[in-house]
Amino acid sequence: MEDPAVSPSIDGSATAAEQRPASRALMELVHRQGAQFYALVIVSAILAAVAIAIFEPAFYRSQNQHVLMQQISVLGLVTLGQLLVLLVAGIDLSVGAVMNATLIVIAVMNRHEDRLVLSLVVCLALGAAVGLVNGLLVSLRDVPPFAATLGMLACIEGALLVYTKGVPAGQIPSSLRPVALSGIGIVPYSLIICLAVAAVIAFVLRRGTYGRRIYAVGRSPDVARRAAISTTGTRVSAYVMCSLLAATAGIILSAYVGYVDPKIGGNYNLESIAAAVLGGVAFTGGEGGALGALAGVVFLLALLNVVTLSSLNPFTQLIVQGVVMLVAVSSFQLLNKRTAT
Q: What is the pTM of this model?
């Protein structure tokens, strides 16, 4: 009787035991290339900081820095979730809708009495449910990630409009506001939460078994299956985590703005993808990391913040922001390819 640990794979080309060392070697290569790209991002950020100090000194005012840190905390959480999905060669266009739903749920459930804890639990449960459906559609029904999550976005937005009749009511409880408005020194608690989440994800991706599975599934699902890795479970968990982080970002955003806007999360779909790509995350999966994604968030928001501080017409600012985003992402992807080679 053959030993199952060394029995041939379905195609007879390799064994599961042989694939595990190959997966580790693949991970080491990804980390080496990632370190080079992180250095590139850091150098670019330093040069950008110097240029901003020269051309837009208002950027470094304490009030603007506080606003920027709030933006980083929200977009950072969404981008970290988007990172996990991109690593398994997916994409999630429903994160903005999840954030919008979070604001509505908090406002509605606290309309007549303070039920903050329960409303937060409901928000997180809603995020997990959306992620679960997205993951199952992509993994079990083979629906393209773009189509699955875009359809989910339409379903959530439509449900919000039907429920609220286009006129959201309720209020954000004052007991939630300190999460965004208070902190340690000038650093808000929201940014501390974001950095803590980033540290956990970075550790898990680089040192944990789950991280190796994520990269293996993103790089080659077939190799992952031969190594006894559940591609379905890994993909589903990535989508669940993405939606959970989007719901968390929505909670923090509601604490910061203090009012209900059913469209406030719309821009986070594309901005989170752009920030992740800026940080070296590949659309093809299996490449990128939490530190790079967070660096991409800082870089992108700093550029957009400078455009906002300029004296340009608001409509012209939108054009400039779009051009800046396209040029920055294209340039970083080109530099990333050169660094990898």
A: 0.83
